[in-house]
Specification:
alpha/beta, 5 strands
Length: 165
């Protein structure tokens, strides 16, 4: 099981997938609820669980309070994972861009389209489908897409053995 997390300063997004990337659970929740989700997932999946966390990195630009608050949240997540003996891996945005789009110039829209191209069955524009005929990304919104990008990058780099430096 992969618990992929896109941390934020107030809310964080997560996707819980099987190792084959089929989504088991997803959401964007208050940070306290995310920590509860980690405890719950550890209780259910135990040693099968691995976390992948999108990590902040420096690109030379000044950052504000929100970024530092996100760093604090990453620390809180890591502390809970350590306390529960859940292994975790940091996933950097550059790795997502290269793994999913083969380009450092990729933007969020490119990453989202790469995910749709890979997983959508029939709604090749949005990947969501409809309530009556849901596609792979039905119910995905905002940062949940970013959490899925973290899961796929972790899968491809570490489970599938396509690690690139």
């Amino acid at each position: 099981m992969i618990l992929a997390i896109d941390p934020g300063n107030i809310q964080s997004a997560y996707v819980l997938t099987y190792d084959n990337l089929v989504v088991n659970d997803k959401g964007k929740v208050e940070n306290g609820k995310l920590l509860e989700k980690i405890y719950e997932s550890a209780e259910i999946y135990g040693e099968q669980l691995h976390a992948a966390i999108e990590m902040v990195s420096c690109y030379g630009m000044a950052v504000g309070k929100e970024v530092f608050d996100t760093c604090v949240m990453i620390g809180r997540i890591v502390q809970v994972l350590d306390d529960l003996d859940i292994p975790y891996t940091y996933i950097f945005r550059k790795d997502e861009k290269i793994t999913l789009c083969n380009s450092m110039k990729a933007k969020d829209a490119n990453i989202r389209q790469a995910l749709i191209d890979r997983f959508a069955k029939y709604d090749l524009k949005n990947g969501k489908g409809t309530k009556k005929e849901p596609d792979f990304f039905y119910g995905f919104k905002a940062d949940i897409w970013a959490a899925m990008a973290v899961a796929v990058t972790y899968h491809d780099m570490h489970l599938k053995g396509e690690y690139r430096k």
